[in-house]
Amino acid sequence: MQSDFIIAGAGHNSLITACYLSKAGYSCEILDARSIAGGGCATEEILGAGYKIDTCSTGHTLILQNPLIKMDELGIVEKYGLSYLHPDPVAHVALPDGEQITMFLDVEKTIKEIERFSVADALSYTRLIQEFDELRPLLGKARSGPIGFVPSLQDLLKDHPRGGVWLRRMAMSAKDIILREFKNPHIRAFMGWMTFQTAVPIDQAGTGLLPYQITAPRQSNSWSIPKGGSGELTDSLVKFLEDHGAIFTYDTVVDSLILNNGRCIGVKAVDSREFRAKLGVISTIHIKHLVNMAPKELWGEDFLFGADTYNVGVPFFSTYLATTEPPIFKTPRGPRSAVSAGYAGWFEDLVQSGRDIYDGKLSEKISWLLVATPTLVDPSRAPLGHHTVKFLTHTIYDLPKVGPKGWEKMKIEFTEKLIEKIQEFCPSFTNDVILDRIIKSPVDIESWNMHMINGAPHGGDRSVTFSGAQRPAPGWAQHKMPIKGLWQTGGTTHPGGSITGYPGRNAAMVVLKDLGLDPCNTMLI
Asked: How many domains does the structure of the chain reveal?
């Protein structure tokens, strides 16, 4: 029996779209290439029983403002048990000269920490946090609806008393903002580390909101993580769908779209199985792959050009560890640890590292490193007394001279370099506390999930060229694809990657409206 919709991909955004459609009474069959749901929002025991490893995303701060969670529109909090932890400290960052900075949930403690380096920068930080409060409701309104359904942030700022200030900031780069607002090299490095977490080079035009957009919500809510693992969000969505009769079909790689008179009516798998739908297909297939799944003439020149010129973003390199101890940073003010910790090079090195990646150069310096240890606040993620630790950095996919295949030989050395950098600041985090590890180069990340092209997990660059109405292609930002019966969600759509849930919820609004329903009534907006 055919379902109303085929959902091609089981990442958190497509699951959210499917949930809202199921809530409205439509049947869904969800396909995924892997044997589990979640995509980049999964927790797996890849290092042995009891070690719950977030194999991609860990922090979920941004999704907490989505009505999906904030208003619990689907009941995944109340009925399905999804809950979040808000670690304190929020972050701890080591710097090249041995200095270290801790960010606390108590804003006054964070300000005092910044005052150790610069009273003027502490005032700038205070102003940054306070000013974001005036933007927060407008940003939420602009994100909580598809392009064209709600006013854009630019439109909302036209009547704002400080709209011109924010419009200029939006057009600037994060580099410009940080250099203007902060003078101390340590604070600049810290703010650069925070801002580069979205994996967009911080000198790109249109990234000027990131220092506000990343720092202020974390100062308010911390680097929030789901209790039990990132995959708990996925599990709650899957349970909702199963309770509403949805069908899950795993280990299914979509090869092409099934068309009837120019309309998408299903998908075909690489093993020739066909999955047909009564009403259409919702895709989270990366648009660079999607355009190869139907005849070129059906996409149109503008969409094909948009897909061809789309920047897939910054590749990641990750290492997952099972340990007997967490990384504890030694400081003159006593030991410090944080779920979200790491190392930042000087600001100019952070800027250069982003440029090097887009220029295809392998940086000699370690400039940005995230060390995530969720077991510091959630011991359920590891056997008693043990920890899970994730090292994450940005790098390049295509190594000079040897190409992508060179990562297989180089990745062990690369990982050891990252671990040694943290051991400079965490003397108790010796090699003997590391029980096991799995290393994923950008090539391995792409192999694990083919839609993380070149090992870039954030769905694509989010600078001005690829944001808002430009995402994924100019003229096609409303989740409708050029082929009728085909809708798109996921990280390649507005507002982009990370765990926000906005692309999934927004796509559902478009589909429901196309079906003649009022999304406001159907989704409890």
From this structure: 1
